[in-house]
């Protein structure tokens, strides 16, 4: 007997059981690649740098967001405590310490421990990159001395402050937390 289709109706056959107890809710967000989402979803991080959160994993210590940069030059120098996965959606960027470029449509992996300085070149009007960031990133000076830290909880706090006051609301924010 086929396990792919319902023997009576011929329709594709879904899993028939219960989902595991305690499983987190799934999450689907439309229009992540598009440029025309509600501007209020972009959380300002500094002048000309903002992020659109997609998922805050407080239980596993990571976050997924789209970073949008509308200026050029050096953005930050940081060290990663966990792995980072990135897909560049628009524009291009690189790290001063490496000879590769992250370009539109490309994937890059940043290993834990890597210390690097993010730069967006002069000919890029806007850069957007989807980052999956585990653990913390630690801002450092050129000698590696820690200057600050960012993790899922600091990102969540920034987004809370922004969405609580701009009409997006905390119910939307809560829907992104797992
Ligand atoms: Fe990085």
UniProtKB/TrEMBL annotation:
Residues 35-135 form the ChrR-like cupin domain. It comes from the Bacteria. Keywords: Dioxygenase, Oxidoreductase. CDD domains: cupin_DAD. GO terms for molecular function: dioxygenase activity. InterPro entries: ChrR-like_cupin_dom (IPR025979), RmlC-like_jellyroll (IPR014710), RmlC_Cupin_sf (IPR011051). This is 2,4'-dihydroxyacetophenone dioxygenase family protein. The lineage of its organism: Bacteria, Bacillati, Actinomycetota, Actinomycetes, Micromonosporales.
